[in-house]
Amino acid sequence: MLPQTYALGITPGGAVADYRPGERQTFTFTIINSEHQARSVALFTQGDLNQSISLEQNSLSFAASEEEKKIRATLTMPSGLTPGPHKAQVVVAEIPPQ
């Protein structure tokens, strides 16, 4: 039996925020279920600013009829960042069916 691969996407692929310590910025992302599969997904952050991002949800469920869902992520800029770029990623991963 061949393994199955399902497509999930997230758009936009990136966002840029200017550094202002303590400022909160909210970004909206669209999770795309391009193959129209019923599935559950986990959402989490990673990167050096991951502790500064809060997601409105940590998981989502798609019905086969649903192509996309929107989520919001709020970035609270920490104080004392060193000069240069800093990154955080919002990651979407399928939760295997049980």
Layout of secondary structure:
Elements (H helix, E strand, L loop, with lengths): L8 E3 L12 E9 L6 E8 L6 E3 L3 E4 L5 E9 L12 E7 L3
Antiparallel strand pairs: 1-2, 2-6, 3-5, 3-7, 4-6
Describe the structure.
By secondary structure, the chain is mostly beta strands. It has no helices and seven strands. It has strands spanning 9-11, 24-32, 39-46, 53-55, 59-62, 68-76, 89-95. The strands form two sheets. It has a four-stranded antiparallel β-sheet, with no helix packed on it. The chain has a three-stranded antiparallel β-sheet with strand order 5-3-7, with no helix packed on it. The model has no long low-confidence stretch (mean pLDDT 91).
Main attributes?
98 residues, mainly beta, four-stranded antiparallel β-sheet, three-stranded antiparallel β-sheet, 7 strands, 0% helix, elongated
How far apart, in Å, are the first and last alpha carbons? 19 Å
- Principal-axes geometry comes out as elongated
Gyration radius (Cα, Å) is: 16 Å
Order of helices and strands: EEEEEEE
Which residues sit in consecutive blocks of at least 5 with pLDDT less than 50? none
Compute the average pLDDT: 91
How many strand elements? 7
Structural class: mainly beta
Summarize the structure.
This protein has 98 residues and is mainly β. The chain has strands at 9-11, 24-32, 39-46, 53-55, 59-62, 68-76, 89-95.
